[in-house]
Design a protein that fits this description.
Elements (H helix, E strand, L loop, with lengths): L13 H14 L4 H6 L3 H17 L10 H14 L7 H36 L27
Helix pairs in contact: 4-5
Length: 151
């Protein structure tokens, strides 16, 4: 169970309801991080905009596979997300040769974004929902009844 309860569609205002409708169309269900972030409407909007822009902007890196390039990117992600980042000049130079400067910036941004998501979800008690395995996502508010909070 999350530490901060998800905002149900019954509690949501029009903008959040519209966003939930879109999320259900895209993912089959409303992702729990999405519904928890909806507790802060302005941050929710900023989060949605950032996710859309990041998704549309990230077009430099190749499709997922475990080539030498992917192994270099994974090693970089490991180094970048270590408790004390361990990125080396040599890693960045290697990635720049492989992907170009814009590719290094894109890779760095995507790794940082995933780290942000992971840390936020962990802090709020949001657990894995099975999107990567194709399993259905649980509905965050299915078994919860809450009093409507003021908007």
């Amino acid at each position: 169970m999350t530490r901060i309860p998800a905002v149900s569609s019954d509690e949501a205002g029009p903008l959040i309801k519209l966003s939930y409708w879109y999320a259900k169309r895209r993912f089959g269900e409303v992702p729990e991080p999405f519904a928890v972030t909806a507790n802060h409407r302005k941050l929710f909007v900023a989060h949605v905009i950032a996710e859309i822009v990041a998704g549309k902007s990230s077009m430099v890196l190749p499709a997922p596979r475990y080539s030498d390039d992917e192994r270099a990117a994974i090693a970089y992600a490991d180094a970048m997300t270590a408790t004390h980042p361990e990125v080396t000049d040599e890693q960045v130079a290697d990635l720049e040769r492989r992907f170009g400067r814009d590719g290094v910036v894109e890779l760095t941004y995507q790794i940082a974004l995933e780290s942000l998501r992971s840390r936020m979800n962990s802090a709020l008690g949001i657990t894995e929902q099975g999107f990567s395995s194709g399993d259905a996502c649980r509905v965050p508010w299915a078994n919860q009844t809450r009093t409507r909070r003021p908007v």
